[in-house]
User: Fold these one by one.
Assistant:
Number 1:
Amino acid sequence: MDRTVNSVEQSVILTSEWPTSGHLQQGDHRLKLEFQEDAAAYEGPTQKARIWTEGWVAQNLFCPNCGAASLGKLKNNVPAADFRCEGCAEQFELKSKNGGFGTRVVDGAFKTMRERVLANDNPNLLLLSYDLSTKDVRGLQIVPRHFFTLETLESRKPLSASARRAGWIGCNILLGKIPEAGRIHVIRDRAAVPKAHVLDLWRKTLFLREQAPAARGWLIDVMMCVEQLGRPNFSLDEVYEFVPHLQSIYPENRHVREKVRQQLQVLRDNGYLEFEARGRYRLTRSA
Ligand SMILES: [Zn+2]
């Protein structure tokens, strides 16, 4: 067995050089990026990857919601949930991929996911990309559950008549419909993001949970428009340039400009952005 990976010690120690939020204890949280090989000595490649990635999360990942030091592994028969925080009961589903993720992630049954999203009962999503050749974690993003709407789910073709589960319909999660604010990096290019920063980014969008699914969809769409402007300061007129795009998403709506203003107001009320002057906005900076 190739042991060279063990000589590359890729653990990352978070030091005081990183920004902290001030009211969260960072401690000496340490993320080791390499997989524990021994646990998977006798399994096939797919099974090995699952054992590695699940083992890695159980040993290394903190809860982004309450900051608890670790997440508990759930039994394999719990549908669409792999981990649960003992402290705050948040659930997490793990998706792992060798290499990077594209614009879609294959998930479970479409009907189940749809019902869970409508009931605000879907799990948070962990997107872990790893490198099979070096047996380590390249990146980890968390998509908070409040970024899921029906628009982020895509129904797949029913399984063919010859399949064991003929007629079963799975779903894809459309990552392209989730704004950057909803893709919180914990590890990026093999470097750990400070825990305090992850917790800050998580808290920043929690207000979306209080919104009904339809209202949340509008807020997320406007967040994406603002992100596409690519700068912290922007004007109302610049956001209005996305009106034709938004109109194509909401063809029935006759008041898209008003809706845009309303969303910016809600985003301001919740501290996501600030009003600078009449028609001028600024994204609130993360700690
Ligand atoms: Zn928690």
Number 2:
Amino acid sequence: MPSYYSWNLPSKEVAIKTLDKSAFTHRGTGIPKEVRNYFGIDSMNLGTKKEVTLVYNQSQFKARLELGNPRSYQGKPVSEESRLFWYTDLERILTKLFPIHFDLFSDSVKLQDTMRPQLRFEKLSGKPDTYYISFVEPENPFEEIKYSWKEEVLKLVREIPSSQFSLNDINIFQPVLEKKFPNNSNIKPKIRQQLQFLRDDGYIEFVDNQGTYRKLFDNPEDYSYLEEVIEQVDVQRNYRVENTWSPQKVRVGQNQFRKRVLWFFEYQCCVCQFNLESLLDAHHIHPWNKDLDNRLNPANGLSLCKIHHGAVDQNLLHIDKNHRIKVSNQVHKTKNVAVKDNLVKYHQKMISDPRDDLELML
Ligand SMILES: [Zn+2]
């Protein structure tokens, strides 16, 4: 079978690319001269692009073929490059199918061909500029597939006896990780990165910026229980949280709630569009203590900056069923310019709408 670099051409209709770093981190791949004909690049003019369609599982994804201009490198002419690029929609599928490869390639880990997944293209007659694609699992699974970085680092975090810990406390486990991830030579930066992911997921929090962390769970069982509850949020549309939750669980649940609500409002205060995330809160429309069923329901949330959250809590600002902002009489009486600017100005204005037409429980 003719093969060129990481490409194979088993028949006139089929081309197979063994995926590399560029596919995972730059949403594209180079096309060697020998494979140009397959993609019809030979008929393109130098320096032009062409839209093509990739079909995966009956969904269509836009992509583009590019043929560059001739270049020179260190005074010598180099032939023009041809490439295929796709967009984030297909990238999401690729990273979901091969999360560990994505991890490794982002770390520039070198993998043998047999350990890499392949992208298979097929042309059907009568469908110009359309390629049916599928992914092929690597022939040889490799050691790292058994382990996920995040899970392994989380395990180590759990082995630390105290709830507060430092980067050094976790770095002493470096040899354990070196054994599990023999191909990675940047273990320390990788640990820091994973700690950030664990923070984003609500497992730990950063106490300061000097590498001090605090666990939000002491006990692995709490964690699996919570996972189930959080799962229900999406699957069963069950947003109830019982009062028996421990403070840590509630905290993590609230963290998830906050993230969801802020996402629905595009990380902006729905009153003033202030967008520094660290100063945004997720306000419960029906209070946490009164509506157990909707504690985690994003429809029960408003993204508010600290000022407007405080104002709503103090009944200085009210948002009615029609999404209209009402400022209290007390505030109206003020002569202070800053209060007028931050509160009075918004009287009778509408809050910004959440994404996806989420029906707010106002
Ligand atoms: Zn605001």
